[in-house]
Specification:
heterotrimer; A mainly alpha; B mainly alpha; C alpha+beta; B: mainly alpha; about 0% strand; C: alpha+beta; 3 domains; 7-stranded antiparallel beta sheet; 19 helices; about 55% helix; globular
Chain lengths: ~110, ~100, ~525
């Protein structure tokens, strides 16, 4: 469940930053349209990747369940962290992104 | 501002009650009829058709309940349930008549 | 209702949420606890020791015990221990005096390693929460009807909530604490929207679980009077050979475990029942463990001849419709969940409970604001306030009392299982009285503080009243027991934090009315801006 979780969390952070209001809150400056589109694309791609990771590890039945669980957990974590520890939230996203290929390799 | 209940007209309260009754009982009737219609018309064996009909019925119940509160008047809540009920009853009756059941 | 679709849906969401919110809070909280019912049972009956699992050995011990103690029974039932439930359970049914009647049924728990009967203190354990959440302590079948009706109302509340939430995508990541009423609404939206897949699944699946009871029209339309035939088709059982009335030795059961597992490409056996043991036509039914797959197929079993050990029947694969219904059932129960996923189920359940709780607080808070100038709370709002406090803080404290009763009631007390349950309801009832007698904010603080104190003290209580405390369970690695103590501690700390926040935030507005009327002061339960 670790790899899908890491990827989901990154995905949600990207999708969050893609929203102008949150981008300003978290990074301090406005985002350009291109950046917003890029973040959205990355976010959705990472979500798809996390689904693929979950299903390929455990099959469709258990994989889908794991993915939904991980989806909800990462969303909750991000939303609860954002108002209290925004920098931690972003750092965790960065670390998750870096850790993902390692996790993928380790689990194979 | 005084307590809400004291200022609500009787006609409003009757209308709400009517809608609630329509949603609870009328909605159940429509859902049950939809369940039966599905069961009798689905090209599956008996047990599978029954299970499918029952599983889907709650979605129908939901729509019926939402209708009862979204429609313009309390009367239209009842009418809006009566019409599908008659149609569904007819259709499932037809299945019986055609020997599909 | 003429104001428009969204407003009508908002009205429906508000009122369904209120009227059924208190019941749904109790259902969600006890249901969430039920995900750890085996662990709770283990803490409440610590005498049943957990051992490393060995299915063959356990089954052999069970067979030996039953052969000694119930050789003439018409049926044996054996429940193997698993990772979460350490007990080896055996049961037998006496041959009925008259044919067609049911014989008396006896159940015992054995130690999985020695086969000796375990004298565990009588307790319902976690089963109490599991059963309460769908039976509501009401006689059959009324509790199930009420809980299923509540599920349908929950479904309506969820969908109307989604329809009403205009900025569901825009506000997806929005949570603004420390802003009074706004924060409560943000919180309500967060635990609702972010955990929506779980809420929708759990609600719809609870309807599917009891659909044969609440929506039987299809069964009657298709099967008429022969409802039995419907159930036989949904749960096909391999036919059990009739009793031959010729004695024959029962074959050893342990090797049959492997044979059953092979039929299921490596699946596990959960339950074994032996029909007519000691007879020439004895048959052994090995049922598949529910934890094997997501899709629930409770009928899945392999039947063996009890004398020769040959396979005499298997259950067919589930057709698609039954598999879909079975998926709903399986997802709801979560039997297949390993430790991590089980904690996620628990967290999602808590989120659902919080969704309902925040909704109830918001409902009252919004209306209290309207009366802040007059300083007096009308009766209806006071009623809502009392029910809010008792059904939330009171219920949580009652759960703690249930655990305290388990450790404090004498082990040999007759009917102690019932008394543990009574303690729960007495505590809950007292919380209603307390909420009626005390002003709103004070009642909240006092009940939350009581809950906090009781929960925080659970590990200490455990240490003082039993040898199964953290000092022993942590080094031993009995994480079910240790986890229970630690989770209680954590919950208590959360309740203490909540009690403190309640006490600090907000303000009291109390106005003395002239002589005859008594003032019901309005104390906002949450802070203002």
């Amino acid at each position: 469940m670790l790899l899908p979780l890491l990827l989901c969390y990154c995905a949600f952070t990207a999708l969050c930053l893609a929203m102008p209001r949150h981008h300003e809150e978290l990074l301090g400056h406005k985002s350009s349209t291109r950046r917003r589109q890029g973040l959205k694309l990355v976010g959705w791609l990472l979500l798809g990747l996390s689904l693929w990771a979950a299903v390929s590890m455990k099959g469709w039945s258990f994989g889908l369940v794991d993915w939904c669980a991980v989806l909800m957990l990462s969303a909750l974590t991000l939303v609860l962290l954002l108002p209290y520890r925004p920098r931690l939230a972003l750092t965790m996203a960065g670390l998750s992104l870096l850790a993902s290929p390692v996790a993928a390799w380790a689990l194979n | 501002m005084k307590a809400k209940l004291a200022t609500l007209p009787l006609s409003y309260r009757l209308a709400v009650t009517s809608r609630v009754l329509a949603a609870v009982f009328g909605g159940y009737l429509v859902a049950a009829l939809a369940s039966v219609t599905l069961t009798l018309w689905l090209p599956l064996n008996r047990a599978e058709a029954v299970v499918t009909g029952m599983t889907v019925s709650f979605l129908v119940y939901l729509v019926a309940v939402l209708w009862c509160f979204a429609c313009r008047t309390a009367w239209s809540a009842w009418v809006g349930l009566l019409v599908p009920s008659v149609i569904l009853a007819t259709v499932s009756g037809a299945a019986r008549g055609l020997g599909l059941a | 209702m003429k104001e428009g679709f969204r407003q009508a849906m908002a009205w429906l969401h508000t009122w369904t949420g209120l009227v059924f919110g208190w019941l749904l809070f109790a259902i969600f909280l006890t249901g969430t606890l039920a995900y750890f019912k085996d662990e709770i049972s283990h803490w409440m009956q610590p005498e049943i020791t957990a051992h490393p699992l060995n299915a063959e050995k356990s089954l052999t011990l069970a067979q030996h015990y039953l052969q000694q103690n119930a050789p003439d029974a018409s049926r044996w039932i054996i429940g193997l221990p698993d990772a979460r439930d350490p007990g080896l359970s055996v049961g037998w049914q006496q041959t009925p005096a008259k044919p067609g009647e049911r014989g008396a049924f006896t159940r015992k728990t054995l130690d999985a390693q020695t086969g000796v009967e375990v004298q565990a203190r009588e307790s319902m354990g976690g089963e109490f929460f599991y059963r309460f959440h769908f039976q509501l302590q009401m006689p059959y079948p009324w509790g199930r009807w009420l809980s299923t009706i509540a599920a349908m109302v929950m479904f309506v509340a969820l969908i109307t909530g989604i329809i009403t939430h205009k900025k569901i995508f825009k506000d997806f990541f929005t949570f603004r604490p420390r802003k009074g009423q706004r924060s409560w609404l943000d919180g309500h939206n967060a635990v609702a929207v972010l955990v929506l897949p779980f809420h929708l699944m759990i609600t719809y699946s609870s309807l599917v679980i009891f659909m044969s009871m609440v929506m039987p029209a299809s069964i009657l339309a298709s099967y008429g009077n022969n409802v039995r035939a419907f159930y036989d088709e949904v749960f096909p059982e391999s036919s059990i050979p009739e009793r031959a009335n010729q004695p024959a030795t029962l074959a050893p059961l342990a090797p049959l475990l492997l044979a059953a597992s092979e039929q299921w490409s490596g699946g596990h056996v959960g339950r074994i029942s032996v029909n007519n043991p000691g007879d020439a036509n004895a048959s052994v039914v090995m049922s598949r463990a529910g934890s094997d797959r997501v899709v629930n197929d409770s009928g899945s079993a392999v039947t063996f001849s009890g004398v020769s050990g040959q396979v005499i029947g298997t259950t067919p694969d589930q057709p698609m419709a039954m598999a879909v219904a079975g998926s709903f059932y399986g997802l709801h129960m979560g039997h297949f969940a390993g430790p991590v996923l089980r904690w996620l189920y628990f967290i999602c359940g808590l989120a659902g409970t919080a969704m309902i709780g925040t909704g109830l607080v918001i409902w009252l808070g919004k209306r209290q604001l309207k009366h802040i100038k007059s300083g007096v709370m009308p009766f209806e709002l006071r009623l809502v306030q009392v029910l809010n406090i008792a059904s939330m803080a009171g219920l949580v404290a009652a759960v703690a009392v249930f655990f305290w009763a388990n450790r404090l009631l004498p082990v040999n007390l007759a009917g102690r299982a019932d008394w543990e349950v009574n303690a729960f309801f007495i505590a809950w009832g007292l919380s209603v009285v307390h909420a009626m007698l005390r002003p709103g904010r004070k009642a909240w603080v006092e009940q939350l503080s009581l809950g906090a104190a009781l929960f925080i003290a659970v590990p200490l209580l455990n240490g003082l009243t039993s040898p199964y405390h953290l000092g022993v369970t942590v080094p031993e690695g009995d994480w079910a027991l240790a986890g229970f103590d630690l989770t209680c501690l954590g919950s208590g700390l959360f309740l203490a934090w909540a009690a403190r926040k309640m006490q600090r935030a907000g303000h009291t507005v109390s106005v003395q009315k002239p002589a005859r009327e008594t003032a019901r002061p309005i104390t906002l339960e949450h802070g203002t801006n």
